[in-house]
Every structure is written in structure tokens, then in C-alpha cells.
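Backbone description:
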Amino acid sequence: MKRKLVELREYDVITSIQENSKERGAVNLDKASFSQLENLILTFKESNEADAIDFLSISSKRNVGKIIRTKNYVGVLQLNNGVQLQILPKIHGGTQDDSKKTFLKMLKTLRDFPSKTFNESNLNTEKMPIFEIFIRLYVREVQHLIKRGLKSAYYEVEDNLKVFKGKMNFSQQIKHNSVHKERFFVQYDEFGLNRPENRLIKSTLIKLAKESESAENMKELRKLLANFELVELSPSIEKDLTQVKIDRNSKDYETVLSWSKIFLRNQSFTTFVGTSFVQALLFPMDRVFEDYVGRSLRRMMHQKEWSIFLQDRQYHLFEKQFALRPDIVLRNEVEQRTIIIDTKWKMLKNTPRSNYGISQTDMYQMYAYAKKYETNEIWLLYPINDEFNGNEEICFTSDDGVQVNVFFVDCHRIEESLEVMINKL
């Protein structure tokens, strides 16, 4: 099935193609695709999926009708009619290709993202859909695995033979051989490449070869399949996944199998599932931004006198209840200083009278951090946008001395941006 790529950004509006009902700046979908998305949202609401609240929303608008708005998730959503939605984050500055490269750079720091070692600037991402980029990352991981050598192992075989070996499978013997007394339905162990890990990889390669529309990706996938001629397709994905054990001898398989699980299960980096899409690779930008800032800051400060803790769980609000988990805690034992840093993926507005759009709930949270950690140094980090140049001094001070500083992060130049903040600390 030929796919149709529809490109979106965070918070874009999607409408159904109808005469005399176009919304300015909206992305128009055919009625069938719009209905699939609508059904997806309704399914999530019925199942009370928490993540779905931040994924898509549906409402009505006068003279337009129903509209769907993308929210806080980015990535790829492929519908079962061949339409593929590519949702990119709104990153200030640069071209769309710059945004795509920066997004991939951010994904490398995400805690459960499989690939950590790729160079996003060498992926040739221009005009390449994100789904094809993920396939290319998988191809590279399999290539690295093959260079290190595919591993053989003992694996269980079930077969209906004329000679007895291993042990009898009595239930299958009765089922298949009640007439053929000369045969034995047996289970036995064999040594070779046809182990569950290799079967899963071969199954993934074949699946992606059918789904990819990139000539280069398809060529590389076929070349890789030549290394799996002695390996069968997985007869049961779930059974083979349960048999996978990552240990000292199979450590090289860990990243590849993480990707395989995602592709074979059509699962995403979210907690929700659905039946209206073929493939969903979606990422919550709050978490992506949090990990991007936290891990970049840890890398930059590893030789300084500060200790850095990500997702610190030292305190609770009330006697071991309602855990406080600031994104980043900096401690300097020499100076006896503690600094709390929290990240928020939200585009603030240059409107001082309305507190720049900063949530009152977020400020309550910062105040609670200050009291529990006994510090007056609190920093709130937001992505830079068109309304700020990054040099603004925004600070809120309570009557008992708690100071919340607002800092804007340039995601394209994360190291330079955080260096400015470190100097201010």
C-alpha cells in the first residue's frame, strides 16, 4: 500500500476536507482518515487512557465543524488506510530539517530510546520521513550486530519425526499421530543460529522491507536478510520475546531487540495502544525535553564541584506520601548550596501582566520544592520561542525569600545555552 505522508507540528489543527469549511492554517485530511483519528480519540476516552489526553483532542468550531488538534506528542502515527501522520515539535529557529535533526538529537537522551550512539548530522534526514529514519537506525544496529557476529545457541525444536529423539510431546502425539503410529511428535534441543533472538530480527527485517518506501532502506534490509538464511521466521512473536534473555553472552543483542519489540508489536514510547493505526512511534515532549536538558547538564558538569541528581526522590510532601520529584537537583557540598531545576515544555508568551503564561500550579510546585529542600534557588526552564531572545531576566521572589528564576533553553544549541545558565548559577 502506497503511503501518503501528512506533515504536522505540535498543536496544529486538523480538519476534514469539506467544501466551504476550511480553517486557515489547518491541515486537511480526507474524510476516512479524519474518521479514523476521531474513532481513535473516542476509544482512548472510553478506556480512560491517561496519555491520550496529551495526544489528540477533538472539538467543534463554527462554520468549520469538527476539528482535531495535535497536542504534546510528536513522532509518527500510521493509519491503517496508508496515511502516515508525521508530527514534529515546534523548535524555535532554523529550518524544518534543522528541527528534525535537533529532535533526533533530543531523542538520543530519552531514557528508553533504543539507539544512543548515532550521529544525527550524518543520517541524511533531509526530506526523509521520521519512520524511514527509525528504520535506518534499526538497519545500523543490525549491521553493528552482524560485524560482531550473530550468536548461535541451543534452541528448542518441535517436530513430527519417524525416529524418536528428545522427549515426547504427548498432547501433540495424540492430536497428529493417532493413525500414524510410526511417527513421534517430539521436543529436542538443537545448536545453531535459529535462536529466538535471530528469529525476531529476521521477522523485523521482513516486516520493515514490506513497509519501507525508501529505496536505500529496502536495499540495506535485503542485504541484511542474506545473513539470516539459516534462521526461520518467528512462529510466535510473543513466545520468542518471552524466551529472550539478555546476559553477558547476548549483550550485543539488547539494542536491536528493543527496536524489534517496538516494530513487531507496533508499540510506541507511550502507554496507550489502539486499533485504528498500524504503527505508532510517539514521544511525550515533556519527557524528551526533561531528559535532553538533564543529561546535557550532567555531561557538562561532570568535572565541576557540583553533584547532579535527575528525578530526585529524596522527599515526600506528607510523611512518605505524594513524592516530590524535581527534574534536576544540583548540590555543592563545599558551598552548602542546593539548586532545584525543573523543565517545562511550554511556549511562554511575553505578557508580564499574565505572568508570561506560567502555570500557577507549577509555581506552587516550585514553592514546595524550595521548602522541602530548604533552598531559595529555584530555576524553571522553558524552550526559547519567537517572543523571547533568550536574554530576558525573569524572576519571581516570595515574601519569605524563595526565588524562582525563568531561563529559556535554545534546543538547537543546547550546550551554549546551558553554559549561559551555569555561569548565572
Notes: Residues 271-275 have pLDDT under 50 and may be disordered. The chain is about 35% helix and 25% strand. The CA atoms of residues 40 and 46 lie 10 Å apart. The radius of gyration is 26 Å.
